UniProtKB/TrEMBL annotation:
Species name: Adineta ricciae
Cited PROSITE patterns: CRC
Lineage: Eukaryota, Metazoa, Spiralia, Gnathifera, Rotifera
InterPro entries: CRC, Lin-54_fam, Tesmin/TSO1-like_CXC
Record keywords: Nucleus
Localisation: Nucleus
Name this polypeptide is given: CRC domain-containing protein
Annotated family: Belongs to the lin-54 family.
Membrane-spanning parts: none
Extent of Polar residues compositional bias: 343-352
A biological-process GO annotation: regulation of DNA-templated transcription
Ranges for domain CRC: 214-329
Highest taxon in the source lineage: Eukaryota
Amino acid sequence: MSGNPPSIVLLPTSSSSPTSNTSVPTISTHPTVRPPLILHQQTIQSNVSTPYKSVVVKPYRESIQQALTTASGDGQPIVLKSNDYLESHQPNKRLALDSSDINNSNITFSSTSNTLSLATVIPQSSPHSTLRLVTPSTIINSNEISTIQTSGQQILLQQRGNLVITQPIVTLQVQPDPNLAQKENHTNAILFPTDPSHTNIRISTTEHLPVQYQRKPCNCTKSMCLKLYCDCFANGLNCQNCACLNCHNDARHEEERTKAINATLERNPNAFKSKMYKFANTTTAQPDRPLKGCNCKKSSCHKRYCECYESRVPCTNLCKCIGCKNTEQSVHPLNIGFYRSGQPKTTTQTPLDQIPRTGPPTETSIPNNVFNMEVTEALATCLLVTGQQCEMNLTSDLDTQQTILKEFQRCMHQIVRSALGRPPLPSTASFD
DNA sequence: GAGTTTGAAACT
DNA sequence: CAGTTTCAAACTC
C-alpha cells in the first residue's frame, strides 16, 4: 500500500447533481478511532438483474479484524474487543451503500497487501459496537485495475488504493466458500489458510436468475455504448459480457462515461430513469418516475418495438401512438408493470393480487375455465418470484419450501375467491 | 444469418 | 418545436 492516505473518490452520478462540472470531487476520510462507517441495509429491488462478481469469505471474525485493522487511516490497528458484537454471518446478504454514505464521508475501506475489505460499525447506545462485514478480505490483482462489479454498479479499487464508487447504489453479494461453511458453523474464530484460490474474486453468472431478472447484453457498434441507444448505458449499467464494439461504457473509460452521463442528463434530465414505470392501479406519474408515452405508428403497440408493450403496461393518454391496440383491456392485468424495472409489485402484492374478479358470484362452484393459461402462468410466476425472494433472502431450503407452499395456498385461495367474485383477502405475504 | 422494419434518441 | 438522421433491437425470411 502506498503512503497515500485512503480517500474516496466519488464520481458524479445520475443521482448527484447532474449539472455539476465533470471534475471529480474527492472526499478524503481519515478514520481515527474506528472506521466511521454507517451503512444502512436496504431492500434490494427485484429488478436487480445484472451479473455480479462474488467473493469468497474468510472466517468472519478474522475478516472483520483485518478490515478494521487495515481501515485505520492513522496506522493504529483497531482490535476487536471481546464485547464487540459480531453480527451473525450472512454470507449472501446483500448490503447496499448509497451516495449519502459517501457524501457523509461515512464510508471507509481498507486496502493492504492487495486485499480489500469493508467493515461497518453500527452505532449503538450501548457500550458495545455492532460490527458488520460488508466485504470479506479479498485479494485484488494489483497489476490491473480491479473491479467488483455488482448489479451493474461497481467499486473500483485503483492501484493507489483509492476507492471509486461510480454509482450511488452499490450492492455486494458475498458468496460463501463451500469449503468454509462447515468450519464457520463450528466457529468463526478459526483462522482460514490464506490460500489465494479461496480469496480471489470470482465471477458468478446470472444463469440461475429468472429471465426477467437477467440483463440482456447489448450489441452496440457505433455508439460506444455511451448513448441511450445502448440499453446498458440507458439503465445506468456498465457493459459486461456484451457483444458491443468499441465499448466505452466500462470502468476503463470512466471519465468519458461520466462526461457522457452528464451530457445525456443535460439533454434529458429524466434519462436513466424508468420510462414506463407505473403502479398497477394508478396512472398517476410518480414524482421521480415519470411516465412517458410511446409514439408508435405501425406496430399497433403490439410489438416489442413499443416500449409500453415491452414494459407490459397499457398505453395511456400520454402516448401519441397510432392504431394502438395496447389498451387497458388488452394488457392482462397480471402483467401490468410486473416484469420490468421499477416494478410496482410490493412484497405484499403479487400478480395474482391483480386478478380481476370475474363474473357473477356463485356460492360454491367456480367456472371450469378458471385455470386458463394466464392464471396458470401467473401462479407459476408467483411461486417463482417467491422462490427467488427466498433465495435472495438466504432463506433455508426448508423455509423456502414452506414459504412457496404458503404462497401456493394463498394463490389458490385468491384464484378461487376471484372466480367466486369475492374480494381478495388482504395479503399478508412478506418475505423479509 | 442477412436484410428489413421499427421507433427512440440524437441531431439540425 | 418539427423534421431528419442515426441507431440498435425486433422482426421476417
